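Board notes, transcribed. Complex of a protein with S-adenosyl-L-homocysteine.
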Amino acid sequence: MIRLKPGKEQSLLRFHPWVFSGAIARMDPAEEGEIVDVVASNGEFLARGHYQIGSIAVRVLTFDKDEAIDQNFYRGRLAQAYELRRDAGLVGNSETTAYRLVFGEGDSLPGLVVDIYDTTAVVQMHSVGMWKDRPLIEQALRDTMGDALTAIYNKSEGTLPFKAGLNPINSYVWGHADKKEAKENGIFFTPDWEKGQKTGFFVDQRENRALLERYARGKRVCNMFCYTGGFSLFALRGGAELVHSVDSSERAIELTRQNVERNFGQEPRHEAFAEDAFHYMEHATQKYDLMVLDPPAFAKHVSVLRNALKGYRRLNAKAMQIIEPGGILFTFSCSQVVSKEEFRTMVFTAAAMAHRRVAILHQLTQPADHPINIYHPEGEYLKGLVLKVY
Ligand code: SAH
């Protein structure tokens, strides 16, 4: 049991799902990953969750005193998560077979991420507690999805705290997928969950790629930080005149080329470059009417926020300098620590630096399969703006 200092119960009473170590008055000895009860200074029950060593000491799983964390608990939470994706039109949809089934706090399962690629679930555990509960989670996944699931791949090597000494190994924990292929709005791609970044694909840009498709007709498109070419594929289908994909990773460029070929065969409108984005824009001679900037999270922690904002600003200013008059810029940040306001101010400053007249056409965020727990606004990590640059 963990007892909080007086006054420290407020955030839990407002259903915030984390307990910081500084709020703890005293605790019974607990192993990392164990289920613990959290009580107020007067002894009143507040929450139950996974204990972990570090600044976030408890990740809350339930605020209900009578709810045990057992097989039924995970079955219930996963059934809810599946139902939400069904509401959003993502279950049994033959045109879109990739979606996020569990998004941590947004699904009241802090520390757990599950992406579905066709009939394979790729699971990432971010907390020791979720790792310890993995047999329960795997069983609940199979119970919830039934025949719609044929394999579970656990990819937690890079997401669990190293210090916990768990030594996880990325591997199939149930079944096996012979073929890695999924569809997003009718476009094929090959999410490489074994070697690729994150779980193999960025499903969070689905709706934003669909929006880009509507803008692409007749445009000369540059997709910066293309990874496996998500935005490029939709620009091509949308009727772009030419599409240039840029990423510093050779492997990403290789996958982009493969994805283009899988969908369009030999496609003369497309070229891909393994190059640094800043370097590419500095030397670009091609004129572009539509640009995408979807960089990796420059800031993973508040301590580097200032530098990250500077990086984003330099990038956006450069893109606004080179885009043709009347061009369209899709610009994003996926850093959780950069707020919507900070992002917008950064874009505003970049526009002023580039000395261009700029109008906001769309304000973008993450889709419904990345739900934001209203008590945990930090979950709103993806921010995007579509700009008209005169
Ligand atoms: N837009 C992509 C996701 C981008 S992820 C999609 O829709 O799927 C970020 C990508 O930026 C990664 O593929 C990474 O290899 C690439 N990257 C990181 N630093 C870079 C740099 N300096 N220049 C170009 N690409 C970079």
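The chain has ten helices and 20 strands. Residues 202, 205, 225-228, 230-231, 247-249, 252, 276-277, 294-296 surround S-adenosyl-L-homocysteine (CB under 6 Å).
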